[in-house]
Amino acid sequence: MKRRKLTVFLAVLAVLIAIAAAVLLRKTAPPEPVRLLPEAQAYLYIDLKPLQTAGLLDKTPPVQVDADYDQFVKETGFEFERDLREAAIAVHMPTATSVPDPRHPSENRYSEVVAAHFDAQRVAAYLKKLSPNIEEYRGRDIYDIPREDRTVRVCVLAPDLVAVSNTNDASVIHGIIDRYHKLAYPFGGPSLIREHYRKLPFGTLAWAIAEIGPGSNQNTAVTLPGGFNLFFPPDTILLSSIRYLTSIDLRFQALTSSDQGARRITDQLNAFLGVFHMLETQASGGDPDMNAFFDSIKVQQDDKKTELTASLPKGFLKKLLTEPPPEIQPPAPAPEPEKPQPKKHKRHR
């Protein structure tokens, strides 16, 4: 009897250890699509599965699509709004060591790994029709698709996984395929992700990690909605995250190398929020969810770090997903001053 109790105890203990290990691994290891990405200066990730499970994407307003996308849907049966599960994107900014594109030397390039539900055979047939050249690498077909004046390389890695890159260097997508064969290694991924991913809140659905102005000696401008520029000192690390719990929790962090740099970012954020709040109030007409959102915004500086946090009510998220965005009307121009009329002089006889 005692031996049976001991066996049950050890089995329960093993399950608890396995659960704890899984939670720890999820906390420290990036998602699989992220671990496949190449080295870059910025990364973005979104996980749509919880939103799809909650039915928040079922009533999104219809969007007007172009003819190419409409044809893509007809031939593959894939719709982003319905079938996309995860998307991981690497942003390649021009650097001294990158392979330059002589036609667009200052433009960013992108590499993506997408997890989705799709028919692999229909997708491959569609890609084959668009690609004048198909390269085979490690048992995978890479479709070279001319797009505008550049080449987009696409590879179906698995029945639910696709890699895309429009960089000028074919070795980028080769590296994604190489890492796919080593996917079981849980702590891989780009160096910027390995260093900062664990700083993101647990349960984050969407996030961005970026290194601003590495090795530069000048501030770098980042344009926000409305054309407002924020200037970041060199070697600033930006961490942005969205977490869906009882509300939509937003967090933005700027990690700088000095207290003065963090103070400048804090002052700029406060100025931007003041202007944005004024414009949005004019457009929303005092919407209670919008007011609650702005009341929750906090901007704080802690030594070399500036942090912005906010909480978005679920009701406002449903409005964003089901209603078209309100149009922000610019303030009416001030009336022009009336021109003085010339005085009439009486004629004396």
List keywords for this structure.
two-stranded antiparallel sheet; 14 strands; 349 residues; 2 domains; 28% strand; globular
Task: Write up this protein.
This protein is an alpha+beta fold. It contains 11 helices and 14 strands. It has helices at residues 2-28, 32-35, 49-53, 67-76, 80-83, 120-130, 171-180, 191-196, 259-284, 288-296, 314-322, and strands spanning 42-47, 84-92, 109-116, 133-137, 140-147, 150-158, 161-165, 204-212, 220-224, 228-232, 236-244, 248-255, 298-302, 305-312. Strands 4-5-6-7-3-2-1-8-11-12-14-13 form a 12-stranded antiparallel beta sheet, with helices on both faces. It has a two-stranded antiparallel ribbon with strand order 9-10. Mean pLDDT is 81; it is low at 327-334.
Brief summary of the model shown:
35% of the residues lie in helices and 28% in strands.
How are the secondary structure elements laid out?
Blueprint: H1 2-28, H2 32-35, E1 42-47, H3 49-53, H4 67-76, H5 80-83, E2 84-92, E3 109-116, H6 120-130, E4 133-137, E5 140-147, E6 150-158, E7 161-165, H7 171-180, H8 191-196, E8 204-212, E9 220-224, E10 228-232, E11 236-244, E12 248-255, H9 259-284, H10 288-296, E13 298-302, E14 305-312, H11 314-322
Antiparallel strand pairs: 1-2, 1-8, 2-3, 3-7, 4-5, 5-6, 6-7, 8-11, 9-10, 11-12, 12-14, 13-14
